[in-house]
Write a structure and sequence with these properties.
13% of the residues are buried. This protein folds into two domains: 34 residues; 104 residues, Alpha-Beta Plaits (2-Layer Sandwich). A hairpin with a 5-residue loop joins strand 2 and strand 3. The longest helix is centred in the N-terminal third of the chain and has 28 residues. The strands form two sheets. Strands 2-3-5 form a three-stranded antiparallel sheet. A two-stranded antiparallel sheet has the order 1-4. By secondary structure, it is an alpha+beta fold.
Length: 164
């Protein structure tokens, strides 16, 4: 007799759970849907959103980075930012290699805050996936915005658009 009572209580408990679920469905039935139509409709992001890292250049397209390596030193992820440079005959820094492993980046923004010449910035791009780890390592060519793109970015952010 106890097995029959146990089965009956399980049936009633199951029906009660179905009733609770249906009550939740009916409660939300008339509301506006909260789903997004991504990627057809892109989400509105804050202007302070930390996305893809980029290197800004001067208006003429030359490197703005002075090779101080402050960004690499302040980064909490060891060896995430790697910079190799030399000085030309005028003692001006020339960046030979600037790589960032975005697969290891935690998008904290420390590198952008510490840069003395504001050459490294975070763009509002968030689609950063790749098919292999090698695709996530960005070199200077992948990171650098052209002079025109850099000026446009500075203008949007309210900075001096023409850096000489």
């Amino acid at each position: 007799m106890s097995q029959d009572q146990n089965k009956n209580s399980q049936v009633f408990e199951g029906m009660a759970n179905i009733g609770k679920g249906m009550a939740t469905v009916m409660k939300h039935f008339g509301r506006k849907p909260v789903t997004l139509e991504y990627p057809e409709v892109m989400p509105d992001l804050s202007t302070r959103f930390h996305g893809r890292l980029a290197l800004l250049t001067k208006s003429d397209g030359t490197d703005l980075c002075i090779g101080c390596k402050a960004c690499a030193k302040v980064c909490p992820c060891n060896d995430l930012i790697q910079i190799e440079m030399h000085r030309d005959e005028d003692k001006k820094p020339v960046i030979d290699q600037f790589t960032i492993d975005k697969g290891r980046c935690i998008f904290c923004g420390n590198c952008t805050e510490v840069c003395p010449v504001d050459c490294i910035k975070m763009l509002p791009d968030f689609e950063l996936s790749g098919y292999s780890r090698e695709e996530l390592v960005l070199d200077k060519h992948d990171l650098t915005l052209t002079g025109e793109e850099s000026d446009e970015w500075r203008q949007i952010r309210g900075m001096n658009p023409h850096v000489e």
